[in-house]
Amino acid sequence: MRSNNILKTVAVVFLFTQTTIVATGVPHFNAEIDPENYLAKEVPPEIARGGIQKLHDKGVLRFQNEAEVTTDNRLENRKLLGTGNLRSKDDNQQRYLQEYGNSYYDDLGYYDDDQVVAEEILTIEYYQDNRFSNPEPVLSNKENPTREASGNRWLYANVPLQPIFGINDLPIEGLSQGFCTGINSDQNGFCHFTYEFFELQGGAIVVYASLTVEGTTAPQGPSVLTVLSGTGEFAGAVGELTLWPVSIDEQIIPARIYRDGSLFLGNRNGYEAKFEISLRYLVNPPLIIPVPANQPVAAPTVPFQGEIEGDGEDFGTASSLYMKRVTCPDQLESEYCDCDLDCKTSSARCNCNEAEEEDCCGINNPS
C-alpha cells in the first residue's frame, strides 16, 4: 500500500517534468528551470479565483481564530460586516466617532465600506519533501570540497509539497523552487524559495497561487524566512515562513515527520513549512472601468431622402448637400472633408486630389 502511494507521488512529479506549466498567460516554461533565478509568474484573475478556498478545502490552510467565525463568512462573504468586526453606529458610537470621524457613517448609521480595509490572517502548513530531489551542493571550494564550506549552494527544483498529515497517501498539489547558500562553516545559510500551489486541468499543471520567501537559516532548529510577495489570491501577502529540518518515519501509514535536530542545509528528508501570512483588501473595492478602445467614428449619414417635412423642406435636397463629403486616402472616416464647410477654410482635411475635384472644393463649389 505504502509503496504504491510512493509510486503515485513519483508519477505526479514525473508528470510535472514532462508537462508544460500553464500558469499565467505569459510564455510557458517547462520543468527545466534555473531555481536560482526563478521568479513566480503573475496569475490571471480567472485562474487565481478561489485559490484560498482550494487550499482551505485541502485542509492545509486555516484562518486565525477560525473556531470563532464560520467558514462561509470568511470564504464567501469576506466582508467585515459578516464576521462581526464591522459594527453599527449604535454599538460603541462615541468611541468609533472619536476614532474614525463622521466620514465613516452613512445616513443609515453604518460605516462607509468604501474606506474600510479588511485583514485576514492565514496559516498554511506543508511538508517540503526533499527525498525525491536529493539535493547535493554546488561546491564553492574546489581545492577543499566539503559540504561545510562557506559559499556552497543547494538548488531545489520542483520539490513536492505534501500535507503533513497525509505524506505518501495524498497527491502532490504544490511545488517549491529555490536555493540555499552556506554563509560560513558553522552551517548558517541564506535561502530563497518560491512555493507554487497548483491543480491539474486537462492533464496540464495550472499554478493558481504562489508565495516567495527568503531569509537566513540556522544550522538546526527553526529558521524564520520573510514572505516577500505572492501571486493569485496571495498577491500583496506579508508575513513569515518557519522551516524546521525534519526526519520521516515511514514505518507507519501515513508516514510521519518529526523534528530531530538534524542539519538544515542539504537536509535529505526535507522541512516542515509553516506560513503565517496577512492579506489586506478593501471591503468594497472600486469597480475597474476598462479604457474604451480607440475606434474610428463613422461619418454621419441621412437615412431618409426625397421626403417632404411639414414645413415643405425637401429632405432629398438637404440630404444631397449634407452628403457632399470626401475622405482623403489614409484618412480616418470621421476626419472627412466637408465640401460645404471645410472648403471655405484652410483645413488639412481637404488636402488631396479627391477633395479638389469639381464636385467638392472645385469650381462648382468654390471655397
Overview of this structure, please?
This protein is α+β, with helices and mostly antiparallel strands and 367 residues long. It has 2 domains: 2-65 and 121-282, no CATH class; 300-367, no CATH class. It is built from 7 helices and 13 strands. It has helices at 2-18, 45-48, 51-57, 71-77, 80-83, 93-100, 315-322; strands spanning 61-63, 117-129, 153-162, 174-182, 189-201, 204-217, 223-231, 238-245, 247-249, 256-258, 270-282, 325-326, 337-338. The strands form 3 sheets. An 8-stranded antiparallel barrel has the order 2-3-4-5-6-7-8-11. A hairpin with a 5-residue loop joins strand 6 (204-217) and strand 7 (223-231). It is elongated. The chain starts with a helix and ends in a 29-residue tail after the last strand.
From the structure above, extract its key features.
367 residues, alpha+beta, two-stranded antiparallel ribbon, 15% helix, elongated, disordered N terminus
- State the major sheet: 8 strands, antiparallel, barrel
Q: Helices and strands: which structural class? A: alpha+beta
- The percent range for strand residues is 25-35%
User: What's the average pLDDT?
Assistant: 75
- SSE string: HHHEHHHEEEEEEEEEEHEE
Overall domain count: 2
What Rg do the Cα atoms give? 33 Å
> Using DSSP, what is the number of strands?
13
Total of helices: 7
Give the low-pLDDT segments. Answer: 1-31, 68-92, 102-108, 303-310, 315-321
Strand order of the largest sheet: 2-3-4-5-6-7-8-11
Helix content: 10-25%
Q: Note the gap between the termini.
A: 94 Å
**Cα shape:** elongated
